[in-house]
Design a protein that fits this description.
Layout (H helix, E strand, L loop, with lengths): L2 E6 L5 H12 L3 E3 H5 L9 H12 L4 E4 L8 H5 L2 E5 L3 H14 L16 H16 L1 H9 L6 E5 L2 H9 L15
Parallel strand pairs: 1-3, 1-4, 2-3, 4-5
Helix pairs in contact: 5-6
Amino acid sequence: MKRISIIGSPGSGKSTLAGEMGRLLGIPCYHMDHVANTPDGKPRSKEAAQALIRQIVAGERWIVEGHHYDDGDPRLMEADTIVFLNLSRYLCLWRYARRTVKYYGRSSPGNYVTEKLNKDLLRGAKFVFLFPAATMPKIMKQIRGFEANKSVYVLRSPAEVERFKSGLRAPVPQQEHSFTG
């Protein structure tokens, strides 16, 4: 596990899982919200975002999380491990709303955009609600094509996410051995 892509609906726990995996495995973590937006919360051009993601996935070790998704996504193409958080839409909606309230007026972790109660919140909630029917089938179709040559994990509950995390182990540094005698 050196190049990891974590995908799923908003509110599924992608940023949290990516941060925990990054700390545990010692792998740098990148958030697609940072790729798609500038630090002041303005959207980057599609070309600039694509250049950034190509730069990230050219690295030897990385974790990239986000729900921004396109066919032929380099995060999926270059990953050796794909984690799809396929959690209940209602759990994701609850988490999405809770995050907005918790971070109201400021950015949540993994996000440059200020959390607000506005039409963007409603658009996001609609996206979360429709994710299982509109987006999930596309993701499943693409990641099924990778199962032969990548490790693919589809996690369907918080308990499965916890079991997955408990199975992760930090890399053990190689020790040099010398023999005398």
